[in-house]
Amino acid sequence: MRHPDEGVLRRLLDEPAGVADADRRHVADCQVCLTGLAAAHADAAAAGTALRAVPAGDVDLAAAWRRLSATLPAADRERAPAAARRRGARLRRPAIATLAFLVVLTGAGVAAANDWLPIFRTERIAPVSVTTSDLVALPDLTGYGDVELTGAGEPQQVADAAAAREATGLDVPQVGPLPRGVSGDPTYQVVGELSGVFTFSADKAAQAAAAAGEALPPVPAGLDGSQVRLVAGPGLAAVWSQEGGMPTLVVGRAVAPRAFSSGVPFETLRDYLLALPGLPPNVADQLRSFTGDGTTLPLPVPADQVRTSSADVGGRPATVLEARDRSFAGVVWVDDGVVTAVAGALGADEVLSVARELR
Amino acid sequence: MTSPPSRPGVRPDLAEVFRRNYPRVVGVAARVLGSPDSAEDVAQEVFLAFGRSSVPTGEAGGWLSVAAAHTALNLLRDGRRRAVREENAATGTDAVAGDVADDVVVREERTRVRAALARLPRRQAVVLVLRHSGLSYAEVATALDMSPGSIGTTVRRAEAALRKELNGHASSG
């Protein structure tokens, strides 16, 4: 019989009843497994000590409830301005958490590790910029060749919807009823077309593979030195914010990314890159989205933090993204080569409702 | 504890969910942050978020624990300076009478653990904290939408990684 895996050994320490009888019997008679079990026990004990509860005294449940009650949404903001103000103050910290999530979701969090394209190279990028930039993001391929970028730059604020339309050539989505907690007029941001020419380098790819501890798979004939041009954008975003400046709702639209190649078909290069060891998962996800025909979504989604599901918006298949902690949700779909996204510190049902009411 | 006044936008089950889960939510955050005061701040945030969510009542316990772990880990990651400040303040207020040198050792140990925890992959850190907060393997799996069979492996690897981080830090410092 093969040895039970390390997870089974670990569970044996906590929940022996949850381990199959055959595995328990095997471990009891197997010196290899007993050694593994002892190691698991030592690590578990060390972790238990490190994470032991801080001496906190008893939690004062009644006091904690009073504190929470004071910050719950007021029944009527008009009649209870003081309560509304308190709520605004309390919301600031969750909003900052949402900002951090947005940064992770849309690439800046990946920037540190993967050296994303310059558009993401701001350490503490504004949330609006992140969202708008994300609409015209390109996968970072600098580890596998040379990348030459043109266009885009930082998102710019414009005066109104008409100016956003003029700057991008895109229709500005008209929002119907606003969800609870979102009010006022939006500000508008635009970002230009981002274009990058990527020249594949077998040498660089070999270095990246070596860094991952593996050899480079055989390079198909004609691939070394071949070029592709990736294009994303332009894009625009309407952003509703609360008083502190944190966005509560963002409605964005952009021309979907496209890829053009000379010589070797783009798909050949893409599939080869996807097969390379060490390709960061987020880059791989984004690269997969470049089908070359502008029909799929440019979404670098960290699966451990975001749950995705499918929905329908105006007859188009849409992707719903929801933070696993439900602090954030978004919905994205493509229609005729144009990506539209609705996102915010809202529930999935709320962003879907906004999306379906767009005109 | 009195029930909340009936208000639009406030879940009717909030008081009951709060009563059942608040201590455990504080416990999850305290294991991450090492400070009871900061942990209560996190718990308040988490219940506020729950209050405006549509999470089914039956899933509230797991949801709250996961949210507390993430929120507390975010604090470690994004606000380490603030977290340390709060930790120091908390240590000052809840330290029992004793040897000052002991307090310093305890504080340093807590700081080391927080730093090690912040360096773990997020999923490992969350699973580790939930398990050590008393959630069963089945509860952790349900709360994180993971397969039950993978929890033991994740806990095992997280504990090994945490110990390695702590030992590495100790030997390098």
TrEMBL record, chain A:
Claim: Transmembrane is one of the keywords in the record: yes
Note the superkingdom of the native organism.
Bacteria
Annotated membrane-spanning segments are 95-117
**Mind listing the UniProt keywords for this protein, alphabetically?**
Membrane, Transmembrane, Transmembrane helix
Any idea what this protein is called?
Uncharacterized protein
From TrEMBL, chain B:
Keyword Transmembrane helix listed: no
Task: Mention one GO biological process in which this protein takes part, according to its record.
Answer: DNA-templated transcription initiation
Report the InterPro entries cross-referenced here: RNA_pol_sigma-70-like, RNA_pol_sigma-70_dom, RNA_pol_sigma70_r2, RNA_pol_sigma70_r4_t2, RNA_pol_sigma_r2, RNA_pol_sigma_r3/r4-like, WH-like_DNA-bd_sf
Q: Which residues cross the membrane?
A: none
Q: What PANTHER family does the database record attribute to this sequence?
A: RNA POLYMERASE ECF-TYPE SIGMA FACTO, RNA POLYMERASE SIGMA FACTOR HI_1459-RELATED
Member of which family? Belongs to the sigma-70 factor family. ECF subfamily.
**Name of the protein described by the UniProt record:** RNA polymerase sigma-70 factor, ECF subfamily
Starting at the broadest rank, the lineage of the source organism is:
Bacteria, Bacillati, Actinomycetota, Actinomycetes, Geodermatophilales
